[in-house]
């Protein structure tokens, strides 16, 4: 028994131990640099690989949702599809519009990818596995995350195309509107944990009562916060049903219409990396980060739990994409300002009530009623003033 | 309640997702190069020239009247009339196409050439894997490439070809009887029967 626990501990810390062992061979002067490289390179390898896997999973999943096969030609069951796509995008001609701002046009995809990668610095992938344990980690995450907006607008503006600009304007309007509920729904966790450090937030959730974990999602305000966070994350990463900035069927890929070849692939990569990062943040804030869901499952290495949760959230994203049609711009804005924002503010209030009430059943009921009641009232308000009628087409009839 | 429709939709897509693994009936995709759908009888894409018998050059029904060339809306047919004549299916001496080209990259498969042809010489084909690396020459089909036997025509469009064959047989029978009647009428000059009669009839028509 004791041996197996020690084994599990070693398996859990294997990457940390390997890094320490490698650092033993590095001269003192180079230690900081080597440490940074050894921490960053795995992230730069693993997450693009996850991106490659996700693209094929997404296409297969969407296919199955629509009763199709999905890609099944390249390799065994189509698993080599991302490689074929990569080679294709590398060999394609890189077209830059003649009247485009060449420098900004080039910088936009790079900035997007760099910004998307930067946020991984504060995400704890496993126990003791975080690149930088900043004491303002969550703040850093949201600050860098909003650089994506800049990249999107650079792309839209520098392309000098009306579709690009329309897409970029939509993207800016959408991202700024949803940035607020995104941050506000994360505030409840910061209130509960009393820390902005992602590592502390996860450590606080990695304790158990009996077999049950102390994840923040298992509280009324935590559940509401998680739902709000995920909705806002979907909008932030421009995914269906909030994919108006791209809108293939109306503004033909929006802000990246003038991109081709590998720059287009970079946009794709940046977008998926952003999605993974916000999912990872949702896991860190609400789903206990690398913590196991039950106390008797802690022998499974922490990083495996992290990636299992991440994959589950990615699946959820794909599922939602396969289900919901694109919203209209006014629906999108109404939802952000009339539902998401007040709901996340009330949620903060609920978290405060929870904090100041004595632990027990009463606290549960009071906060749950507060959250559910507000949600119900706001949704009724959202529905009000909507005329639901059979549409008549004046000129057609 | 807010989100009710979303949950309904999510269950529907989940049912599709898992159902497609359980029930093959759901997957309507045809895995093309391995499996193919059977073509319906009225399938058509590009025209071809019908010939009777074994030799495509000798049995070609086309008499180079050039009606199809004139009627073709996108002007994808190019015909050059021959200088000499050769006997056609009914034994009558006719012109034949010295050159007959169809540019199938221009052809729009309207079938007008088939409808205007008085000799049932041009018909619609059903082949569809015609991709080529040469976008100009590869899609410009000449007389030899266009010629396909009557048996082939019977195979791809059995009903239509049967009707055409019956009509043609009736016409040939009529021609044969007319020739016989003429031969009987001009009994004294019976020595040079068939050839002369044919030439004479050709002149009168």
Describe this structure in words.
The complex is a heterodimer of chains A (397) and B (205). The radius of gyration of chain A is 23 Å and the shape is globular. Chain A has helices at 2-12, 14-23, 31-65, 81-91, 102-118, 137-145, 147-158, 162-193, 198-205, 220-236, 248-251, 261-286, 302-323, 329-356, 361-383, and strands spanning 208-209, 212-213. By secondary structure, chain A is mainly alpha-helical. In chain A, helix 3 (31-65) packs parallel to helix 13. Chain A starts with a helix and ends in a 14-residue tail after the last helix. In chain A, a hairpin with a 2-residue loop joins strand 1 and strand 2 (212-213). Chain A contains 15 helices and two strands. Chain A has one domain (46-327). Chain B is an alpha+beta fold and 205 residues long. In chain B, the strands form three sheets. Chain B has a three-stranded mixed beta sheet with strand order 6-1-8. In chain B, strand 3 and strand 4 form a beta hairpin. The chains are: A mainly alpha (397), B alpha+beta (205). The A-B interface holds A 61, 64-69, 319-320, 322-324, 339, 375-376, 378-379, 382-383 and B 1-3, 6, 9-10, 12-14, 16-17, 19-21, 26-29, 31.
DSSP summary: helix tally of chain B? 7
Total number of beta strands of chain A: 2
**Helix-strand topology string of chain B:** HEHEEEEHEEHEHHH
Radius of gyration of chain A: 23 Å
How is the largest sheet of chain B built, in terms of strand order?
Answer: 6-1-8
| Secondary-structure element order of chain A, N to C | HHHHHHHHHEEHHHHHH
Biggest interface, chains and residues, is: A-B, 19 and 19 residues
Q: Describe the biggest sheet of chain A?
A: 2 strands, antiparallel
Query: In which range does the helix fraction of chain A lie?
Result: 55-70%
Short précis:
Chain A has 397 residues and is mainly α. Helices cover 67% and strands 1% of the residues of chain A.
